[in-house]
């Protein structure tokens, strides 16, 4: 979502400021556009917390900005964030000052699919036919071309929503607990509610596991946890600060945002953080490693293809 979401979630231990002022991105021409890498492998998209959306190959190569750039995107009115990659890896949708923009990777073409300055947090369904997004206190679902938008959740304070693997329900966070609701209408049901602040829910592609961020680790921030989709024991995936989990389409890895210090080592206390970084790990939390370049601020990853 927009910058206010980042600030809010830091307060409640669910988000991350991407970096300090001296880590700001290098100045680029506001008219500069670049085509992303060829799609020989899954495409990863993320934003840098300063208003620029990037894409790269899963192996870290081919890093390119795809949203408008400049010395200060926020001040220039071109702040972009919340990138989501289509399941086939051909398109990226992100939020900006005018609404939701779709970027076609093969051509570099962009077009506005939702003219709504409050729209943010877009998420594709697994079949690529629908996109869910937030606007104010409402979750909408629309066709992937931007048509037929309708409200699914209204009058609440939802956040961090994703489709379930079947595409017929949404799961989202609300005031620190996790809720699921059919997109066709119906009563929401609580998936997880306890004394901790839980956010960023994401199901594995096969629907067997729910991964989420939570402050149950006792640190000044959140870590990532997993539990069976039908409920059961909650297991820790990370010991250091981590949010924004997302699975690769084949379920083989989890990408996530973590906080690192000046030596690029992960930290568990936000006061020690100097930069955000996109990392990856196995679904059981093993083999944690950075994905983005050391000096690239990066957060809220998405992958497709």
Describe the protein's architecture and organization.
The protein is mainly β and 305 residues long. The protein has 2 helices and 24 strands. The strands form 6 sheets. Strands 3-2-1-24 form a 4-stranded antiparallel sheet, with no helix packed on it. Strands 4-5-6-7 form a 4-stranded antiparallel sheet, with no helix packed on it. It is globular, with a radius of gyration of 18 Å. Mean pLDDT is 89; it is low at 1-15 and 17-34.
How confident overall, as mean pLDDT?
89
Shape: globular
Radius of gyration of CA atoms, rounded to a whole number? 18 Å
Largest sheet: 4 strands, antiparallel
Query: Share of helix among residues?
Result: under 10%
- Distance N to C terminus: 23 Å
Query: In percent, how much strand structure appears in the residues?
Result: 35-45%
Give the H and E element order. Answer: HEEEHEEEEEEEEEEEEEEEEEEEEE
DSSP strand tally:
24
Counting helices, strands and paired strands, the structural category is mainly beta
Across the major sheet, the strand order is 3-2-1-24
Q: Show unreliable segments.
A: 1-15, 17-34
- What's the number of helices? 2
Brief overview:
With about 300 residues, the chain is mostly beta strands. It contains two helices and 24 strands.
Keyword list:
305 residues, mainly beta, four-stranded antiparallel beta sheet, disordered N terminus
Question: How is the secondary structure organized here?
Answer:
Blueprint: H1 3-11, E1 43-47, E2 53-57, E3 64-65, H2 73-76, E4 81-85, E5 91-96, E6 99-104, E7 110-115, E8 119-124, E9 130-135, E10 138-143, E11 150-153, E12 158-163, E13 169-174, E14 177-182, E15 189-192, E16 198-203, E17 209-214, E18 223-228, E19 235-236, E20 242-247, E21 254-260, E22 275-281, E23 289-290, E24 299-304
Antiparallel strand pairs: 1-2, 1-24, 2-3, 4-5, 5-6, 6-7, 8-9, 9-10, 10-11, 12-13, 13-14, 14-15, 16-17, 17-18, 18-19, 20-21, 21-22, 22-23
